[in-house]
Design a protein that fits this description.
Keywords: Cell membrane, Membrane, Transmembrane, Transmembrane helix. It holds the Pfam family BPD_transp_2. It is found in: Cell membrane. It is a multi-pass membrane protein. The chain is mainly alpha-helical and about 325 residues long. The protein contains 15 helices and four strands. Strands 1-4 form a two-stranded antiparallel ribbon. The longest helix is centred in the C-terminal third of the chain and has 27 residues, at about 225-250.
Length: about 325
């Protein structure tokens, strides 16, 4: 039997994972399909709203919107490849933003605020990981409980009020531009690059594929599955903390309402990108392409003045189609 640490593309579960190569990732059929979908959405935008869609300001808006959810999506990709699910990411981000802005009202600087947001997010993720890995709770239930608890704690801390911030070091992430692009987009790009490197070029990434593909085989291969699972959720929480910094910069607020339904957008982007819900296979590139598709859809609905309800229906249909295609592909591989 092949060692899953050395060859994560052949986990014992029998589901072939991707080879750790960016070129191979782009060459995969599902990525080509996602690029085709993006191109189609761009054409729709150019046809329906050429005067508004093809502008530098709209492009910046798309990237800024994608940045916050995108950082969360990177963490969600690791968790789902590892065979888990995290429903608490939006609420944890809101809690981290409220906690950090509370410090801002006490005259703390941007560095302390950023560290606070990251520690709160990582701490919440660590609690999720401990409950799932060592408490043997079902990921759906554990993270659902964290969703409710984190949102409630954020509401209590903020007294259900939006807290304004004027800390320059945070706000400048959104207002300062390099080559016409806000700094928060570069932060998002950095997180994506680091996430890709960790997933495809480190032992941690190879173990993530192994644990998601077949936990028992990974355990027999010498991987501490429980410890690795805990770290995956801590990583997801860390990404929520970084996302909290970005949303504070973009909105200049901390609020218990931040991140509403972000968990669904992040999970949907991961699924659309080709990551298996059962774990063991997926790519960062695919998840980001899925995220850009959802972000473009949102942008097109806004530009065309379409109802938000219709937008949610469209996203729901896309998720259903993506899952059905996954099942069809798995059946085809099994034949």
């Amino acid at each position: 039997m092949s060692d899953p640490i050395e060859a994560p593309e052949r986990p014992a579960a029998g589901i072939a994972g991707p080879r750790p190569s960016l070129l191979n990732g782009f060459a995969e059929i599902r990525h080509v399909g996602l690029l085709g979908a993006l191109a189609l959405l761009v054409v729709v935008g150019l046809v329906t709203r050429p005067e508004n869609f093809a502008t530098a300001s709209n492009l910046v808006s798309i990237l800024a919107l994608a940045a916050t959810i995108g950082v969360i999506t990177v963490g969600a990709t690791f968790v789902i490849i590892g065979g888990g699910i995290d429903l608490s990411v939006g609420a944890v981000m809101a809690l981290a933003s409220v906690w950090a802005t509370t410090l801002a009202t006490q005259s703390y600087g941007p560095v302390v605020m950023a560290i606070c947001a990251i520690l709160v997010g990582t701490g919440a993720g660590l609690v999720n990981g401990l409950l799932i890995a060592y408490g043997r709770m079902v990921p759906f239930i554990a993270t659902l409980a964290m969703l409710v608890a984190a949102r409630g704690l954020a509401q209590r801390m903020s007294d259900r009020k939006t807290q304004l911030i004027q800390v320059e070091g945070i706000v400048q992430l959104s207002t300062t531009r390099l080559l016409g692009i806000p700094l928060l987009v570069y932060v998002f790009a950095l997180v994506v690059v680091l996430g890709w490197i960790v997933l495809n070029r480190t032992t941690f990434g190879r173990r993530t594929y192994a644990v998601g593909g077949n936990p028992e085989a990974a355990r027999l291969a010498g991987i501490d599955v429980r410890r690795h699972t805990m770290l995956l959720y801590a990583l997801s929480g860390f990404c929520c903390g970084v996302a909290a910094i970005l949303i504070m910069a973009r909105t200049t607020t901390g609020s218990s309402t931040h991140g509403d339904l972000y968990e669904l957008d992040a999970i949907a982007a991961v699924i659309i990108g080709g990551t298996l819900l059962t774990g063991g296979r997926g790519t960062i590139i695919g998840s980001i392409l899925g995220l850009l598709i959802f972000t473009l859809i949102t942008n097109l609905f806004i530009l065309n003045g379409l109802n938000t309800s219709d937008q949610l229906i469209a996203k729901g249909l896309i998720i259903v189609v993506a899952v059905l295609l996954q099942r069809r592909n798995l059946k085809a591989r099994a034949i």
